[in-house]
Design brief:
The chain is 14% helix and 28% strand. By secondary structure, the protein is α+β, with helices and mostly antiparallel strands. Among the domains are: 112 residues, Roll (Mac-2 Binding Protein); 180 residues, Trypsin-like serine proteases (Thrombin, subunit H), CATH 2.40.10.
């Protein structure tokens, strides 16, 4: 007989035959506690969603694609940074054109224009020092070399001047002088072609007969002035400063300027800032007083070129060029003639004595028409001019300062655009163009001029650009 291990609510047991039999009731002492074991139910089975195999592969492909795209974007960002550094830094494989492009160093000064604006061929021929030595840059040796005078002709001289920016018609003369060169020379090829660039017609040479090299004068400049003048401001005499011009608008003097070749005038950019139309201007050369305009022709202007970096507030790059419609006639008057641009290596520095000329009132201060005045000054160091008691840091490297030589010279009331010149080795050189100095008659307020040496490359580049116009 088997018994049900579980207790019923009654006091009787159920037998297998289904017949129940009453048992006598149990006393309290007979009743013992029964431990009933309850088996914990099993937790429900975890329901898992099975993913088909092809869907798992698809998800992995998507993840891989996203990761690949992110890596590609990072690589492109890195490449952009490297390219930005490359174009913002100096050329790794050559020289910068100045407009973002680069050329191989061997392409520089080879007679073939490779830069978009021709910067690689712009400044490859120069005149050096007070003797006007002709020098050409060669990329083969990365140096400037003198040109041997053997078989040199005026035809070759005109071609060289044309490359610098002068017109063939203004060519003056070629010469020669002895010069030792341990680095060697450049020799002009025997089959010279006057129509081809001079840079393509020279070859390296270790020797030169008698070491005689070329000197070159592209225009007849820097002569005809008596330098034994008093230092105090005074009226200028005729033929004193043959390069001085009066720039006029509507018959009234507006600014001064200096002739640097029969076709070109140097003046200040602020002079032409508000009157930039060439037709507004008339140029008078060889005059010292207002009556001279009645007997001298007015030259018309074909081009006005102000420096692209001119800043009217700081007076940085305050220089401009005027190209005349026809050249001034030097042969018609001894009162007219160019001043020389300062050659590379000339080294005119403080305390060099200089002269200024300007159109202004007479020393008596009359209110009549302006006369040509003159005075002697001396260059002073930029550090002195930039001191806290002077211009307090306003003077930049494209400026020069002068101090008057004699009391009462009134040199600070200069005529804008008028020339500052200096005599060195028998030649008069254009050192500066007047840009400000209205109050410099006060103590510690020197006159301020644009530094022509700083702008030399710019001047030649503009002359060459507008050479045939």
């Amino acid at each position: 007989m088997t018994t049900n291990p579980y207790l019923d609510s009654g006091v009787s047991f159920i037998h297998e035959d289904g017949e129940g039999r009453k048992l006598p009731p149990l006393s309290r002492s007979d009743v013992k506690p029964q431990y009933v074991h309850h088996q914990a139910p099993k937790p429900p089975p975890e329901i898992t969603h099975s993913i088909p195999k092809h869907k798992g592969v698809k998800q992995r492909c998507v993840k891989f694609t996203v990761a690949a795209v992110i890596c590609l974007l990072l690589l492109l960002l890195l490449a952009g940074i490297l390219l930005g550094y490359y174009f913002s830094s100096s050329c790794i494989h050559g020289l910068q054109c100045g407009d973002g492009g680069c050329v191989w160093e061997s392409q520089w000064c080879d007679g073939v224009t490779d830069c978009p604006a021709g910067q690689d061929e712009a400044n490859c021929v120069r005149l050096h020092g007070s003797s006007f030595l002709l020098q050409i840059y060669t990329s083969q040796t990365k140096t400037w070399r003198n040109v041997c005078s053997h078989s040199w002709t005026d035809q070759k001289g005109k071609a060289s001047c044309q490359h610098i920016g002068y017109s063939r018609s203004t060519y003056f003369k070629s010469g020669q002088q002895e010069a030792d060169s341990s680095d060697g020379f450049l020799m002009v090829k025997s089959d010279f072609n006057p129509e081809a660039p001079i840079l393509q017609q020279v070859i390296l040479s270790k020797t030169c007969p008698n070491n005689r090299v070329v000197t070159l004068r592209c225009t007849d400049c820097g002569s005809g002035v008596n330098s034994s003048r008093a230092s105090r401001g005074q009226l200028a005499s005729p033929r004193a400063w043959p390069w001085q011009v009066s720039l006029q608008v509507a018959g009234s003097h507006r600014c001064g300027g200096a002739i640097i070749s029969p076709h070109w005038i140097v003046t200040a950019a602020h002079c032409v800032a508000k009157a930039s139309s060439p037709g507004d201007w008339a140029v008078y050369a060889g005059i010292v007083d207002p009556l001279d305009t009645l007997f001298n022709p007015a030259y018309s202007v074909s081009h006005i070129i102000a420096h692209e970096g001119y800043n009217g507030l700081t007076r940085r790059n305050d220089i401009a060029l005027m190209r005349l419609s026809k050249p001034v006639d030097k042969t018609a008057s001894s009162n007219i003639g160019p001043v020389c641009l300062p050659n590379v290596g000339l080294n005119i520095t403080a305390p060099q004595k200089c002269w200024i000329s300007r159109f202004g009132r007479t020393v008596n201060g009359d209110s009549g028409s302006p006369h040509l005045m003159e005075a002697q000054v001396s260059l002073i160091d930029t550090s002195d001019c930039n001191s806290s008691i002077a211009y307090n840091g306003r003077i930049s490297q494209d400026m020069l300062c002068t101090r008057e030589m004699g009391a009462g010279s009134d040199t600070c009331h200069t005529d804008s655009g008028s020339p500052l010149v200096s005599l060195k080795d028998g030649v008069w050189w254009l050192v500066g163009d007047s840009i400000w100095g209205e109050h410099c008659a006060e103590q510690n307020k020197p006159g301020v001029y644009g530094n022509i040496t700083h702008f030399l490359d710019w001047i030649h580049r503009q002359m060459k650009k507008h050479q045939d116009e």
